[in-house]
Amino acid sequence: GAYYFGHSVAVSGDTLVVGAHYEDGDAASTAGAPNDNAPDAGAAYVFVRDTSTNTWSQQAYLKASNAGAGDNFGDSVAVSDDTVVVGAFGENGDANSTASSPNIYASNAGAAYVFDLDQF
User: How far is it, in rounded angstroms, from Cα 46 to Cα 88?
Assistant: First the structure.
């Protein structure tokens, strides 16, 4: 499908983050085993540049831990040093929703997810 890869882009030094808010993978989707189980859940991709060869390679495929259809994770992205923030305007959790205990009680409430690139 049309994932809108590049809808949002952010760069910091030799790190590039690209959002694809219509990507269809659910929370179990990985770079090595992608799936299309959650339409428009969204994803973000992290690339790093090898300065000696001036080539870019993918470092990470980011998904929300509670990825769900229509979340649009990756609609907005930001990066600074080793910290990436990804917005998901369609995420449905209310104020009691957490990463470990998500809910869907507030339609399109939105969420932001923070990743430490040192973990990849």
Answer: 17
Structure tokens at 47: 């690339």
* Predicted TM-score (pTM) above 0.90: yes
Rounded Cα gap, residues 69 and 91, in angstroms: 9
Euclidean distance between CA atoms 28 and 50, whole angstroms: 29
The sign of the CA dihedral 60, 110, 1, 27 is positive
Q: What percent of the chain has pLDDT over 90?
A: 92
12-56 pLDDT tens trace: 999 999 999 999 999 999 999 999 999 999 999 999 999 999 999
Radius of gyration of the chain (CA): 14
Q: Look-up: residue for tokens 């959650």?
A: 38
Distance, first Cα to last Cα, the chain: 27
